[in-house]
Amino acid sequence: MDNRDNNLEKDKKQSKPEVLIVGTFHFTKGGDLVDSSTAVDIQSDEEQIKELVSILAQFSPSALAVEITKDRNEALNKEYQEYLKYGDNFERNEVHQVMFRLGKQLGHSNIHALDWMESVGNRGIGDVAEWAKEYQKDKFDSVMKVFNDNPIRSDNSILDNLQLINDPTYQNREHRGYMNLAQIGEGEEYVGIDWLRWWYQRNLTLYKNVVDIIHSGNEKVLLLIGAAHVYLLKQFIEESGEANVIIFNDFLNDI
């Protein structure tokens, strides 16, 4: 391939929409396997949150997307409009603390809810854990060893913690934890896979909703999502050819 072909490929890549995926830990305790909410103190860390917002603003996104179920999109944006009007109705979660501030700074009129959490008649993760602890404790322990290897520390800055969980080495290791989870089960009883089919459907739904935002005319989408979703969302978006994916750490290195 000569230089002209290289330039054509570069121009073609740059002409695609861009999705900046920012993997986060949740600022409030949720349903994650590992709780990292103690790593944030909203009052003492407010300046760090503002610094993060200023950094993300440099991407100049045309759309903001968050890990809120899509059926709550209207309620989410009602909360956002109240924030724009009154400016002090923050909740502790990262959507309010980061994305509401960012949306206001950039002049966005709305924020997109993307998530899906419906049941598909599968086992819950708690059911998988109970079965594994009784019948395949060694495999269960190996899975939990991966998920409990959490790099987030309370004495780190928010930005440092985000860089740690967006690092490709960490992302690859955590994804292997899900692949280990798929091995839980005996014979034709695919216990771990029964939950993972829901996990993959959830991430495929997130991917589809991101693509819908792109197709509605947005060239630059910023997605703030739990870090566990980053590996699959990056894979799905890249494989679709719909957009170029930018990972948070790469974005930091380029600004």
Walkthrough of the structure:
It is built from eleven helices and five strands; from the N terminus they run H-E-H-E-H-H-E-H-H-H-H-H-E-H-E-H. The mean pLDDT is about 90. The protein has a five-stranded parallel beta sheet with strand order 3-2-4-1-5, sandwiched between helices. The longest helix has 25 residues, at about 190-215. Helix 5 (about 125-135) packs antiparallel against helix 9. The chain is α/β, with parallel strands linked by helices and about 260 residues long. The protein is globular.
Give the strand line-up of the largest sheet: 3-2-4-1-5
**Approximately how much helix is present in the residues?**
40-55%
Q: List the total number of helices.
A: 11
Biggest beta sheet summary: 5 strands, parallel
Strand fraction equals 5-15%
Termini separation: 30 Å
Q: What's the assembly state of these chains? A: single chain
Mean pLDDT: 91
How would you sum up the global shape? globular
Radius of gyration: 19 Å
Protein name: DUF5694 domain-containing protein
Organism: Salinicoccus sesuvii
Pfam families: DUF5694
Question: What are the defining features of this structure?
Answer:
DUF5694, 5 strands, 255 residues, DUF5694 domain-containing protein, globular
Sequence-ordered SSE layout with sheet pairings:
Layout (H helix, E strand, L loop, with lengths): L2 H13 L2 E7 L21 H12 L5 E7 L3 H14 L7 H13 L5 E4 L9 H11 L1 H11 L10 H8 L2 H14 L9 H25 L4 E7 L3 H11 L3 E4 H7 L1
Parallel strand pairs: 1-4, 1-5, 2-3, 2-4
InterPro entries: DUF5694 (IPR043749)
Pfam families: DUF5694
Protein name: DUF5694 domain-containing protein
